[in-house]
Amino acid sequence: MPLGVVVREGGNVVDAVEFVLQNFTEMNKLWVRMQHQGPAREKEKREKERSELRDLVGKNLQVLSQLDGVDLEMYKDVVLPRVLEHIVNCKDEIAQYYLMDCIIQVFPDDFHLQTLETLLSACPQLQPTVDIKTVMSQLMERLSKYAAASPEVLPEFLQVEAFTKFSHAVVEVIEAQPDMPLVGAVSLYVALLTFVLRVHVDRLDYVDQVLGGCVKKLEGKGKVKDAKATKQLVALLSAPLEKYKDVVTILKLSNYGKVMEHLDYDTNRVMAVVLIQSILANNTLITAPEKVLLCGCSFPVRQ
Predict the structure, then answer these.
(1) b/e map of 234-255 (b: 16 or more CB within 10 Å)?
(2) 3-state DSSP: the chain helix, strand, coil percent, rounded to 5?
(3) DSSP helix/strand/coil, 39
(4) What would the mean pLDDT of 74-102 be, rounded to a whole number?
(5) What is the dihedral of CA 151, 193, 119, 155, to 10 degrees?
(6) Helix 227-244 crosses helix 265-281 at what angle (to 10 degrees)?
(7) How confident is the model at residue 52 (pLDDT cuts 50, 70, 90)?
């Protein structure tokens, strides 16, 4: 059994899981308390001890992921709910971020897919200062790679409605963190769009839904002035062009132009160049007057 976990004679996997969960809980409580204890002059020593203890806390989750007998059912019914309950209740920004990241890294992809709603439901409950956009982006990244590496699991993504669950979670997290910078919110939509383009490449309606979610977040903000947020908006608009290589199809999406309306003149001009480059690179034939008009409406006019 990994990392020295020993079950007494007559014990079983339930006993082992309970032992590790209790160990995880108590060690994390100690780790959280340590950052608030001790004189300032011992800060360096205390930080070293906290770093070592943090690694041990994470190893408890690794042990749980490696225990023989911890199948999907036990993970879904016992392990994940208990771990998430403690993470939410500890109310420590550093611990919450680290432990959510650990869950994503150490447990199998199929476990994440089959417990996606439970895992995502914890995200809006974390402290407002937790970098939850990175946690969710990593989860979407991991599951999209899982789908790409194992195309046979794609029906499962549809069955569990992964896209719908991620979409709802993005909205809930943004609402739960009203002070989240605009760049963070747009980054979440970029991550969600990347997920769609990898897992549901045939669903242009999903692409439009993602763009529409971003439009709602941008409502009332006028032209985006923040440079980092603007960069993410350009990434959001460029991704479907790079994937589908068809400007006309992309510009027909009802929300594509609405996102572009929030770009300032200079950035809108950059996107116009990107559109032209896509037309030239992919030898796109614009054969009807209405398609010419559609493309022309995307070019910026200084007002």
Answers:
(1) bbbbbbbbebbeebbebbebeb
(2) 75, 0, 25
(3) coil
(4) 95
(5) -30
(6) 20
(7) confident
Q: Contact, 259 vs 296, CB < 8 A?
A: no
Q: Which amino acid is at 200?
A: H
Q: What SS3 string covers 83-145?
A: HHHHHHHHCCHHHHHHHHHHHHHHCCHHHHHHCHHHHHHHHHHCCCCCCHHHHHHHHHHHHHH
Amino acid at 120: L
Tokens of 241: 């062009």
Q: Which residues, including other chains, have CB under 8 Å from residue 42's CB and lie 6 or more apart?
A: none
Paired tokens of 109 = 């992809």
- Give the mean pLDDT of the chain: 89
Angle between helices 182-199 and 132-149 (to 10 degrees): 10
At 39, phi and psi to the nearest 5?
-70, 160
- Which residue reads 């990392």 in tokens? 3
Average pLDDT over residues 14-27: 95
Judge whether 299 and 256 are in contact, CB under 8 Å. no
Contact by Cβ (8 Å): 214, 236: yes
Which residues, other chains included, contact 12 with Cβ-Cβ below 8 Å and sequence gap of 6+? Answer: 69
Give the lowest-confidence range in 127-136, 224-233, 273-282: 273-282
Contacts of residues 76-79 at CB distance under 8 Å and 24 or more positions apart, as own/partner, are: 76/111, 76/114, 76/115, 76/118, 78/17, 79/17, 79/21
Q: What pLDDT digit, counting tens, does each position of 217-236 carry?
A: 999 999 999 999 999 999 99
Distance in angstroms (rounded) separating the CA atoms of residues 202 and 206: 9
